[in-house]
Amino acid sequence: MSESRRWFEQAPPELQTQKKRVPPAAKLWVKCPECRKVVYKEELRENWQVCTGCDHHLRLAATERIRLLADEDSFTREDGQLRSADPLRFVDSKPYTTRLVHAAHKTGQPDAFISGSATLDGMPIQLGVFDFRFMGGSMGSVVGELVTRLFERAADRKQPAIVISASGGARMQEGVLSLMQMAKTCAALARLREQNIPYISVLTHPTTGGVAASFSMLGDLIIAEPEAFIAFAGPRVIEQTIGQALPEGFQTSEYLLEHGLLDAIVPRLELRSTISRALRLLTDPVQ
């Protein structure tokens, strides 16, 4: 046995296992889907998942979105005990209950929406964020209840509401019960609006279906991230329905802004400062 080999075997355990702890290269780097640049994962994380080569916005975890907007250590989760049930006993390729368990294990979250109280630059807010990793951010009865309670807390506490959407729409495993959440959340939002309390809606990639067709498009200020896909139905469904080809860039945030359906497109790195300025403008008349 060589001297170098003998030294390694006699080295402290932390040095002996050092090579094993080095992650594979695939876990250290990410290829941007837009410009194909290979970016160091840590660099991407520090830049809030925005490509340093082309500014393409990759998906950002819900917990990171909270960290992006809320003041440090200010976020307090509300209604985190709510869990989805299976009233229809729905089964497709697997039971709905199995899908819920797998999604919770994958994300560490009980459902597809995180809501709570926080401050943004010292201003009290009610903040809600969709987690797209949980069954595509779909809205079932629990998500609808969480959104509704967020608007109700905002009304009770006279605090602005902010919702960041990333959703595939209504959760099909709950049938009409999921569709009812569209009316339920909008009714709660109407009560908030009666008190002249601001609601800012942030649309990220993708925001679709029943979420896009309800509260996400009803903000006093509607902001979208660049190149986000925002739609009720997908382009293939629309083309088959109307029998026509769709315009270039249809259903992107840029197209919607051009046609008056959004108020602004804001890059992720400017989102916190933009919302902070907007809140001060929107809440001054209330105070």
Overview of the structural elements:
By secondary structure, this protein is α/β, with parallel strands linked by helices. Helices cover 39% and strands 16% of the residues. It is built from 12 helices and 9 strands. The strands form 2 sheets. Strands 3-4-5-6-7-8-9 form a 7-stranded mixed β-sheet, sandwiched between helices. Strand 7 (199-207), helix 9 and strand 8 form a beta-alpha-beta unit. Helix 7 packs parallel to helix 8 (176-194). The longest helix is centred in the middle third of the chain and has 19 residues, at 176-194. The protein is globular, with a radius of gyration of 22 Å. The N and C termini lie far apart (79 Å). Mean pLDDT is 91; it is low at 1-11 and 15-19.
Summarize this structure briefly.
The protein has 12 helices and 9 strands. The chain has 287 residues and is of the alpha/beta class.
Write the layout of secondary structure elements.
Blueprint: H1 3-10, H2 13-16, H3 18-21, E1 29-31, E2 38-40, H4 41-46, H5 62-69, E3 76-77, H6 96-107, E4 113-120, E5 123-130, H7 141-157, E6 161-167, H8 176-194, E7 199-207, H9 209-212, E8 221-224, H10 235-242, H11 253-258, E9 264-265, H12 268-283
Parallel strand pairs: 5-6, 6-7, 7-8, 8-9
Antiparallel strand pairs: 1-2, 3-4, 4-5
Fill in the keyword field for this structure.
287 residues; two-stranded antiparallel sheet; 7-stranded mixed β-sheet; alpha/beta; 12 helices
Cα radius of gyration in angstroms: 22 Å
- Count of alpha/pi helices: 12
Distance between the termini: 79 Å
Question: What is the mean predicted local confidence, pLDDT?
Answer: 91
